């Protein structure tokens, strides 16, 4: 059997937790073999003008398979992830059947292994069928490697159920991730409840519907001592609640999406369902608060909430179209365009912290150092490009950024030491 070919990433700037410096990086097999000057290798990847870091990790990806393969498959979603610089994604459990059992979790993981473009880690449901009643066996799914449990798309409405879930999660040493929405306050809602909503005469999604559940679950974390991750926060009130809870020392983490950092509720005045998402796009004040939370560490991670939908479903009237947007391939560029973040902060938000929250930090979100797993992204913050829905790898085309110019791009992605993206193109 012939020896593995060595790969050298030449001329990039290494971004590590403790240092940022220019060096070549050599990969042999599935690990980093050397970091230094003028390294030689069998294959050379151009890193000039780029950063090299651990690959990105997405805490919030909808891959739709099983059940909605018309919108996305694990293979097509993995392809989009690799192009976006992701070496690992957490697959949301609102599939059909739901990821509340060993067989479905194994299927999702195995399809990810078959695609071999990034690690696909299935999440589990908090409740059976995401129905908010009977708890899933957290210990049983934890034995299958599941570390994150969520009923995403549904918030767990009953307080006692959520308390029991947190106690069970603590005993199983897993993390619950909450979709914060008091459903009785959002019936029929299509956009943020505010000035735009009122002028259009359409039902609104009040900030309070999110904030009440954030507040309730912070209180439950205080009572139970269990870990909690808040999904896709969108309001200034939620950010402040999490900030205060962290100051208290509670074991809480939170994420925000690129679209909530970059898009305003005013876009819904067009009645275009492409801008419909859950939670909805919010106001200038909310965006400012989310950005402040990112900068001061209240927000731990940027997660895409990549939510593909087949064209005929997204083209329905606003009140009937499903919420959701694509996100994997555009995340880096959208974040880099929306905010002035240094390279270290970008990697912290998109790699190191998400890997830790997802329990993937033995393989992902690692330093670029000798002996570490070669799950690597080479990317820049300078390239300006126009998003085109036709050029995206996803089976669906529901990107809100079509036709927009964004800044920053992934050049190369290595997964398990293999080049899966080279010069912005998938290699397999």
Structure overview:
The chain has 428 residues and is of the alpha/beta class. The chain folds into two domains: 100 residues, Urease, subunit C, domain 1 (Roll); 304 residues, TIM Barrel (Alpha-Beta Barrel). Helices cover 29% and strands 22% of the residues. Strands 3-2-7-18-19-20-21 form a seven-stranded mixed β-sheet. Strand 8, helix 1 and strand 9 form a beta-alpha-beta unit. The radius of gyration is 21 Å and the shape is globular. The relative contact order is 0.16.
Say what oligomer this is: single chain
> CATH first level of the largest domain: which class?
Alpha Beta
Distance between the termini: 22 Å
How many strands, what sense, and barrel or not for the largest sheet? 7 strands, mixed
What is the CATH topology classification name of the largest domain? TIM Barrel
* Overall CATH architecture of the largest domain: Alpha-Beta Barrel
The helical percent reads 25-40%
Write out the strand line-up for the largest beta sheet, numbering strands in chain order.
3-2-7-18-19-20-21
Count the DSSP helices: 12
How much of the sequence lies in strands comes to 15-25%
Shape estimate: globular
Record field, number of beta strands: 21
| Count of discrete domains | 2
Radius of gyration: 21 Å
CATH superfamily of the largest domain: Metal-dependent hydrolases
- Unreliable segments (pLDDT under 50, ≥5 consecutive)? none
